[in-house]
Design a protein that fits this description.
75 residues; mainly alpha; 8% strand
Length: 75
């Protein structure tokens, strides 16, 4: 799975759970950061949401869920 694939999963899930627009969620999530597997063995990605408090909380909750099912991504 790539970082772009993971971002698409984020956007689809947030649209379903919270509503809003695809464009807004893409702006809130911005990029999925991918780290080296040498230093991040269990989960090599992170998101830094930049929305409202409620939007950021929704993204963080979803990120916690997705880390267990999609721990490793490629750039």
């Amino acid at each position: 799975m790539t970082a772009a694939d993971l971002k698409d999963i984020f956007v689809a899930a947030l649209l379903k759970r919270v509503g809003g627009t695809r464009r807004r969620w893409r702006m809130v999530i911005d990029d999925v950061r991918v780290y080296s597997l040498e230093t991040h063995l269990h989960c090599n990605w992170a998101v830094m949401p930049s929305g409202t408090i409620a939007e950021n909380a929704a993204v963080e909750r979803l990120a916690d869920e997705l880390r267990s099912s999609h721990p490793i991504v490629t750039s």
